[in-house]
């Protein structure tokens, strides 16, 4: 099993403490797994340049980030899955949030990816086009979100397990291939077409609900109002939202407010002012909630943001 650090260009920008939390594992020729489990007291940015043509899929487990892949700008959230392809020399950058960042990334040689995707049927056609066009230019696509069960049972276990040596490599490869297979899975021949259509419609409605909440984080709608916006009844909305994102509607709102609060603190905003923007009249209540969410106090994030930058 080969374990590699980020390439030289990235390594120059990567703090020692962060490099220890990023592991690149060559599972087989043309297939590399990257496990990233990063936590910093303040937001920071990184840049990477591809050494070879690449096709990759990223499974985002914790928080999210803003990415720029050769001008293709997109933002990720917890449980999001994104695919990307680019030629040798393609540049990408992302901003690591103060709340931390955990992802599983599967990087494939485009020829290997195209060979697999060509056997997956019509459902994989857009990804197949991306893989085949990797040498010509960069492209991105958002895929089906991870279900909470998938995130817990497969992706999370890749960061914490009792395997070592070749057994660990085999375990990680099986998990990575399982996550990939879930993205390519086609409905069984006996599935009813109406049920398949309904399932995809629910997924779109939940994505619409999440995006609407994110756009109205300071004044979120009631459950009934949100259900009316996405065209579903409130009971079904609550059940489907939890199934899709692993939290309640208002649990999602709290999470987004906390992530935004971490960003404000990292920029030097006072704890009391940050608490008010997060919807807390009591700074102590905010501090308790912040510690439950991030396992550190807001004052610690603020102190780190005000600390002098280290050089050398």
UniProtKB/TrEMBL annotation:
Keyword DNA-binding: yes
MF GO annotations: DNA-binding transcription factor activity; sequence-specific DNA binding
Keyword entries, A-Z: DNA-binding, Transcription, Transcription regulation
Protein's UniProt keywords contain Amino-acid biosynthesis: no
Annotated Pfam families: HTH_18
Occurrences of domain HTH araC/xylS-type (ranges): 207-304
PANTHER family: REGULATORY PROTEIN PCHR
Name this polypeptide is given: Helix-turn-helix domain-containing protein
Upper taxonomic lineage: Bacteria, Pseudomonadati, Pseudomonadota, Alphaproteobacteria, Sphingomonadales
């Amino acid at each position: 099993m080969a374990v590699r650090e980020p390439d030289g260009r990235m390594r120059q920008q990567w703090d020692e403490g962060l490099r220890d939390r990023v592991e690149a594992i060559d599972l087989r020729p043309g297939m590399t797994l990257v496990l990233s489990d990063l936590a910093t007291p303040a937001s920071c940015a990184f840049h990477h340049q591809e050494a070879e043509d690449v096709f990759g899929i990223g499974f985002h487990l914790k928080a999210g980030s803003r990415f720029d892949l050769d001008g293709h700008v997109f933002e990720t959230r917890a449980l999001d899955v994104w695919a990307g392809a680019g030629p040798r020399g393609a540049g990408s950058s992302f901003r690591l949030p103060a709340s931390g960042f955990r992802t599983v990334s599967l990087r494939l040689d485009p020829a290997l990816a195209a060979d697999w995707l060509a056997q997956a049927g019509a459902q994989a056609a857009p990804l197949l086009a991306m893989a085949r066009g990797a040498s010509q230019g960069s492209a991105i696509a958002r895929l089906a979100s991870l279900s909470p069960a998938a995130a817990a049972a497969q992706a999370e276990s890749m960061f914490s397990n009792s395997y070592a040596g070749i057994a660990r490599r085999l375990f990680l490869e099986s998990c990575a291939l399982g996550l990939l297979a879930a993205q390519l899975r086609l409905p069984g021949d006996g599935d009813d077409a109406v049920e398949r259509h309904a399932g995809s419609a629910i997924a779109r409605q939940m994505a619409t609900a999440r995006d609407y909440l994110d756009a109205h984080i300071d004044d979120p709608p009631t459950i009934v109002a949100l259900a009316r916006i996405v065209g579903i009844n409130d009971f079904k909305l609550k059940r489907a939202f939890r199934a899709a994102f692993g939290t309640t509607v208002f649990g999602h709102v709290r999470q987004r407010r906390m992530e935004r609060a971490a960003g404000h603190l990292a920029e030097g905003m006072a704890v009391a002012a940050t608490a008010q923007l997060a919807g807390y009249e009591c700074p102590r209540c905010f501090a308790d909630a912040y510690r439950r969410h991030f396992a550190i106090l807001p004052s610690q994030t603020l102190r780190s943001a005000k600390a002098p930058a280290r050089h050398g």
